[in-house]
Amino acid sequence: MIWADTIVQGVLLGGLYALFAAGLSLVFGIMRLVNLAHGDLIVMAAYLILVLVTLLGIDPFLAALISAPVLFGIGWLLQMHVLNRTLGPDILPPLLVTFGLSIVIQNALLEGFSADSQRLSVGALETASLALGPLNVGVMPLLTFLSAVLVIVGLNRLFYSTSLGRAFRATSDDAVTASLMGIRPQNIFATATGIAMVVVTIAALYLGTRANFDPTIGPARLIYAFEAVIIGGLGSLWGTLAGGIIIGVAQTLGAAINPEWQILAGHVAFVIVLLFRPRGLFPRAVD
Amino acid sequence: MALLQTDNLTAHYGDFQALFGVDIRLQEGETVAIIGANGAGKTTLMRSISGVLTNRADAIIFDNDRIGSAHAADIVKKGIAMVPEGRKLFPSLSVEENLLIGAHGRKVSGAWTLESVYEMFPVLKERRLNPGTALSGGQQQMVAIGRALMSNPRVLLCDEISLGLAPVIIKDIYAALPKIKETGTSIVVVEQDIGQALKVADRVYCMMEGRVTLEGAPSDLSRDAIHNAYFGAAA
Amino acid sequence: MTTSTQTARTAWSVETRTRTSTLFLGLAALLVIVLAFAPFYASRSLIQDLFFILTMLVLAQGWNLLAGYAGLVSVGQQAFVGIGAYAMFGGVILLDLDPLVSILLGGSAAALLAIPTAFFTFRLQGAYFAIGTWVVAEIVRLTVAQWKALGGGTGTSLPRSATRDMFGLDFLKDTFGFKTSVATDVITFWLALILAVVTVGVVYRLLRSRQGLGLAAVRDNQNAARSVGVDAQRLKTIVYLSTAFITGLAGALIYVQKARISPDAAFSVLDWTAYVIFIVVIGGIGTIEGPIIGVLIFFALQNSLSGYGSWYLLVLGLLGIVIMLFAPRGLWGLFTDRTGIELFPIRRRLSGGSTEKPGG
Q1: Averaged pLDDT score across all residues of chain A
Q2: Distance in angstroms (rounded) separating the CA atoms of residues B216 and B211
Q3: CA-based nearest residue to B193, from B218, B170, B169, B221
Q4: Which of B190, B218, B193, B191 is nearest to B204 (CA)?
Q5: Could you give the CA distance from residue B93 to residue A172 in angstroms, rounded to a whole number?
Q6: Spatial separation of the C-alpha atoms in residues A253 and A265, rounded to whole Å
Q7: Is C143 an interface residue toward A (CB < 8 Å)?
Q8: What are the chain A neighbours of B73 within 8 Å (beta carbons)?
Q9: Between A and C, how many CB-CB pairs are < 8 A?
Q10: Residue contact C143–A264, C-beta within 8 A
Q11: Owning domain of residue C264
């Protein structure tokens, strides 16, 4: 029974990692941009929510709702004025610029908020749990997982059933021909990053309510997110959820054996999957 | 005043100059063919007009508007649509989505809708849910033409629409041009296939090595004149 | 007309040296000699600063070779610094080796680790390679933290006895009257100087060789390079393994000097990869001069701004971003564009001959 419990915890943790990863996957899918500052952007969003909670005395969920459009704007501007300049056949500029951005965000947060651990409090919800058959499942982890599923359903609908999604896919296929359709690729990229930042806000909400956070934890979240994306197969959002679950389960199983092995077990699972499936579990047919 | 004209249009790819002062005119309702051998600069001319290559603002004038330096997306919105060389369908989009995205930048009501495109090319309706790139070459060309028409353009630029297609298919594709012309759309056709071009065009420009070498109505041009303008005079 | 064609043909020659570069090589040799004697006229803290500059230069040349020439953008070089350092500690503590001998063990361990790492990460393309190398570094860090004999997660120190008996120490103490602590710094400084000179020399030789040309071809166009018979994968593997070896040596050397190790410090992505990337980017990626300029600027920045804590890193990050966006070839690239000067010319240039057409 203890194993079943561990696995369920792992699956739910995977939902959090899928949330970390969904924005990354979206941006990579549309513009082949790998954002090494993604983890730090999540942490930054968590601090924005924290500031709103502290200043206005509101609930973190409401604060996240207010933060989302602000972060959309930040993402839009960042893409339009910085990251768009780095796109091209050479992979160095985007990698190095986002790596620099990661250092800048971490240290700006350190300067503004110190290295102290913070937490978003959701009151009684934190300890609330549901009995699912013989298992007791925390309400917040469950909510995290359901949010991940909802985000993925939402992004897939956006991608495959709206005219914006059509423009996303067309631009991703061929930006020059897309511009012959009246699409401005630069705007499309900025919008995509804006949407990714809305997902980042949701990820930040659950990051901050689940455990303590401080300005330096971004890079580790980035790595988990990447592992989920790569395991899932580039460009497949459901694959990303599966990847997140694999990392999450591996981590909780590792931790059950020896608490020091939690993170290590996740990384090892990633390496093993890639050794057998170099293109991930659900690779996109067209690439 | 012509609907669309280029004035002393030049173009460069790095150090290589592809166009040397090209002047062409397109009148409202007219179909103009631009012929020339490979490397004559025809596609560069199309890419310049459609905004893929930018230029001096006054190098291209459309309906009294200086559009030479405008972004490709804005040029579509003004009413010039392009059927690019090699069709360039979006592989992630179905046939119908490829058509719909043609109207992304310019949502103008006119003769062309999903229904009227399907009416002109019925085979596309049968295959509307297939990925665009799963179709045969001729069908893909139909999608590319339909996609450009979906913006109800005032000028349709067709770049090498017969390239790589069987003669029977080329006939089918070219049969669509008079129907498009009937709706009042002005057309520029770029062709290596001189016979096809002369059949549909009101006027012909012949290009060689980045310059216009001959201009006139098909009936006024002799075979020899075209031959010389196309391949260069035998020295 | 015939004669002029022939003269033109014979007068052309391919050169990879320029007059400036030959002059510079002389100056560089002089500088190395002056540096080698630094322990006899410089303060101990200057020696330590020079040690830091030289070891960072070695790491920077290695990363530059990987990313700037082989297109392998690694964010996981800390794996090789850390494993080099830990293997050195292992050699000293578990095998009772002399620290200096153990440095070679560090380099070898890093090269050995690079084999499975390459096998795994080379499956990943571009940016995913970067993340893959980072994950490997994390795996190695977390695994080493389980190694209780070397202090586990908290780390350990080099035993006094081992450092006191280090090879050459007594000679220096007896001959020049250095104190033990000073003599240790002097030895590690000399080793760092040798390692830096050898690294720059090897990279320079490599880039001027046929393999170097192949590497440039691979970077510019992998498919084209393959079609003219350049085995990209093999070249990349060689570069990756040799860089790991050099990085491991540097890591081991750095930790002989530090004499205290912990997994978090030895596998720090900030210290051993982020700083190194900034050095290369600021100086100029894809040149040998760039990392040299970069390490000096980095040192100056660190010395003048380190009192400001995180502001310093913030400025460094912003500087890196601005340079990448507006001067992607770095400060050295800007300088070369203005002056045409190259100190380590690796391009082949035609000289002599005449550009006139024969008979024209």
Answers
A1: 93
A2: 15
A3: B170
A4: B218
A5: 11
A6: 8
A7: yes
A8: 179, 181-184
A9: 113
A10: yes
A11: 35-268
Is C290 a domain residue? no
- In angstroms, the CA A173 to CA A185 distance is 11
Tokens of B177: 């041009």
Residue C42: Cβ-neighbour burial (10 angstroms; 0-12, 13-18, 19+):
middle
**Identity of the amino acid at C46:** L
Residue B235 has pLDDT above 60, yes or no: no
Q: Which residue of A has its CA nearest to B103?
A: A181
**Euclidean distance between CA atoms A267 and A280, whole angstroms:** 15
pLDDT digits (tens, 9 = 90+) for B173-187: 999 999 999 999 999
What ipTM did this prediction achieve? 0.91
Which whole-number Å values give the CA distances from B142 to A177, B5, B99, in the listed order? Answer: 16, 27, 10
Which of B92, B97, B108 to mutate: most A Cβ within 10 Å? B92
Residue C227 banded pLDDT, cuts 50, 70, 90: low
Q: Find all residues with CB under 8 Å of A145, minimum gap 6, and list them.
A: A11, A12, A14, A15, A16
Tens digit of each residue's pLDDT (9 = 90 or more) over C303-314: 888 788 788 889
Q: Is the pLDDT of residue B122 over 60?
A: yes
Number of Cβ within 10 Å of residue B101's Cβ equals: 25
Cα separation, C83 vs C91, in Å, equals 12
What per-residue confidence (pLDDT) applies to A286?
Answer: 45
How many domains does chain C fold into?
1
Tell me which architecture the domain covering A2-116+134-276 has in CATH. Orthogonal Bundle (1.10)
Q: Who's near C111: CB < 8 A, 6+ residues apart? A: C241, C242, C244, C245, C248
Report the amino acid identity of residue C146.
Answer: Q
Residue C277 contacts A where some CB pair is shorter than 8 Å: yes
d(CA A216, CA A154) in angstroms, rounded, equals 30
Nearest to A227 by CA among A272, A200, A264, A267: A267
Q: How many angstroms separate the CA atoms of A93 and A105, rounded?
A: 18
Query: Scanning the structure block, which residue is given the tokens 């997994």?
Result: C263
- Chains B and C are touching, with contact defined as 3 or more CB–CB pairs separated by less than 8 Å: no
List the single residue in C130, C146, C317 with the smallest CB-CB distance to A103: C317
Looking at residues A197-217, what average pLDDT do you find? 96
Gyration radius of chain A's alpha carbons: 19
Q: Which of residues 103-162 of A touch C (CB under 8 A)?
A: 103-104, 106-108, 110-111
Long-range contacts of B175-178 (CB under 8 A, 24+ apart): B176/B120, B176/B121, B176/B142, B176/B145, B177/B31
Among the partner residues C128, C269, C320, nearest to A219 by beta-carbon distance: C269
DSSP-derived 3-state class of residue A130:
strand
The percent helix, strand, coil of chain A (3-state, each to 5) is: 75, 5, 20
Q: Phi and psi at residue C137, in whole multiples of 5°?
A: -60, -40
Domain boundaries, chain A: 2-116+134-276
Domain spans, chain B: 4-228
Residue C159, domain member (yes or no): yes
The verdict on residue C207 lying in a domain is yes
Which CA distances in Å does C23 have to C27, C29, C344? 6, 10, 11
Buried b (16+ CB within 10 A) or exposed e, B121-142: beebeebbeebbbebeebbbbb
Q: How far apart are CA C307 and CA B149, in angstroms?
A: 65
Residue C220 belongs to a domain: yes
Distance separating alpha carbons of residues A121 and A124, to the nearest angstrom: 9
Q: Which of A163, A180, A286 to mutate to test the interface with B (most CBs of B within 10 A)?
A: A180
Fold of B4-228: Rossmann fold (3.40.50)
Residue C148 pLDDT > 70: yes
